[in-house]
Amino acid sequence: MRAYRATTAPEAERTLPARREGVTIREVARATGLSVATISRVLNGKSAVREETRKKVLAAAARLRWVPHGAARSLNTKETRNVGVLLPDIYGEFFSEIIRGIDLIARRRGFHVLVSSSHSDRSETEDVLRALRGRVDGVIVMSPTIAARDLRDNLPEGLPAVLLNCIAGKGFDSISIDNYGGAYAMARHLSGLGHRRVAFIAGPPGNHDAEERRRGFRDGLRTSWGTPRGEWEVEGDFGEESGFRAGKEILCLSPRPTAVFAANDAMAIGCLSALQGAGVEVPDQMALAGFDDIPISRFTAPPLTSVRVSIGELGARAMERLLTALADGAGHTHQHETLTTSLVVRESCGARRAPGAGRSPRRKTTRSIQEEKR
Amino acid sequence: MRAYRATTAPEAERTLPARREGVTIREVARATGLSVATISRVLNGKSAVREETRKKVLAAAARLRWVPHGAARSLNTKETRNVGVLLPDIYGEFFSEIIRGIDLIARRRGFHVLVSSSHSDRSETEDVLRALRGRVDGVIVMSPTIAARDLRDNLPEGLPAVLLNCIAGKGFDSISIDNYGGAYAMARHLSGLGHRRVAFIAGPPGNHDAEERRRGFRDGLRTSWGTPRGEWEVEGDFGEESGFRAGKEILCLSPRPTAVFAANDAMAIGCLSALQGAGVEVPDQMALAGFDDIPISRFTAPPLTSVRVSIGELGARAMERLLTALADGAGHTHQHETLTTSLVVRESCGARRAPGAGRSPRRKTTRSIQEEKR
DNA sequence: TTGTATGCGTTATCAT
DNA sequence: ATGATAACGCATACAA
Description:
Two copies of one chain form a homodimer.
Chain A: H1 10-14, H2 25-32, H3 36-44, H4 51-64, H5 70-77, E1 82-88, H6 92-108, E2 112-119, H7 122-130, E3 138-141, H8 148-154, E4 161-164, E5 173-177, H9 179-192, E6 198-201, H10 208-225, E7 233-234, H11 240-252, E8 259-262, H12 265-277, E9 287-289, E10 306-308, H13 311-328, E11 336-339, E12 342-345, E13 362-364
Parallel strand pairs in A: 1-2, 1-3, 3-4, 4-5, 5-11, 6-7, 6-8, 8-9
Antiparallel strand pairs in A: 10-12, 12-13
Chain B binds a DNA duplex through helix 3 and helix 5.
């Protein structure tokens, strides 16, 4: 493709314009009459350089529009200043918030984010994992289905990894949402409102978040009223459509539940649509609650009671954790961290009557959210 | 930090276990008794290698878990097989769909996606742009505010770029949504239903998408009824909250509009909440329509009439365009492409009466969507 | 078909 | 404070 340039003809080369491929450090050196070492020093600021030289170099670099070549630099320093982020095929809002949180911290520390999304099967995830060697300094893996040992087997040796909302495995840092606690609190809340027949719309089977929320729901109800009946759990897949179908199913149950708790807001909204389509008043004839507190939940009619999760913070903390691991090097000790949730009570569960437009939820915090410094 | 290993002690080294830093091509060469060149050849498959040798190499590579080092490879092939994606601080669903579309195509062709999100100001965008040299082979830039010339000034020389929904500038490939056409069609649709007083909730000023939608709205109404009145345009920022505020404002207008067209669905949903909070029936007392057709719009009450945009396809096409540019090299000719939209008529505009749950929209296509091969 | 040697652009280790 | 130069891990032109 590209012809090699003989280095034995420096005179000829000297008269050529800057290479199409981009200016190199050598050209800056030539332009300033300094050595490449000095240019490098100025750039990295590690070693002492005379102020005058410094300015000269900076000026020349700017003029020639030179930016150090990432790959070349990586080859030497053994660091790419890239982090990989592996995400599952996930629904809307979640995804962007996570990335936003990660990227915020990453950029602040001079890192770039390499994403890889929509991993359906495991072997695909593993391929991507392997392809990461020499491209990233660490990875954040969010796969509600992959097991820790599969991860370990496919991760390039010594590549730090942080598990996000996965099944926590030893040998890794991990960070996750208190799915269990949030669902537990919501179940208790609904019980506290007097509901004895509460239906649950579950998330996809095999999904860790989904299972934890289910557990929380069960335990919460059990604590209140004893063993919940199995038929009050309807299957869903975290999508609106599945919530809609679940809503219809629930209306056919007998005795009919008086409240529905969906494992996420998307399904709750789908369910709401089904209930309204059937002429069932929410919350008067049926209370409804979700999980995630996505932005839109404040604007449904009635506004949706939900479990608040700070997704952006989840991403940010994962990134910070990864940076710590990077800094610690071999001496790093793995930790597991759980992010707390809080109940957001709006009108859909019947605990509050519509005040104004019902848009400024009063929050009943189960545990305090760990604040993120900005 | 890391001690250098003297290459003058090969015997000593031979007995050492694999380096902590990762296996290199040399170790595979040593293990197979072949030269590094041969290893490289089987890996890249460009040059002929004896089948037997090939197998031996592959086996050794697998056993040693060797994966070529990205940076090293990039340094002499001049390609990273990474593409950069610059995204603005954008709302939820949009973001994930775009990335999904891009990543789908990228992975299929062996590329990785480097994202950078949440760019508020221009200088930040420019910094990121510059830092991309040697890290990516091309970029997809989505900045509704940056001008083409700022881009050109900060892009590493010769780095192909595709503009996504930006102000189209010459010297770049670009691809965008037919914002104007979609908004025009919606304005005509509302007019066709008999609405003579239609309010518009605008997007953020300076945002290209927003402005185009506004133009389309104006022209569509003008074509129908003559010059629309200025006060029927209310400012918003694409967020739900701003739609809510706009909804309240609109209710104070006199004479009161009979229909509202929001520049995106998030604002339409906020507006819906405001209308319902004020006891105004939708669509009977006020028709409502949005733009984007986000998944949730099918599940609002009433379901929202909107302009459908295939976001995932937008990302996919941008990526394909970039790959074409990469393949063409210097001989590439820039093109501008516009993705068509289609009207999705649901109940919020009053054109249909609630059938069932109102969930299966009949589509009136303005122009055919260009299908993407799968 | 395979091996040898060189260069990719940078940082780091020596000197000076 | 600065310069010369050897790595870094790989791909390729060239020789065999």
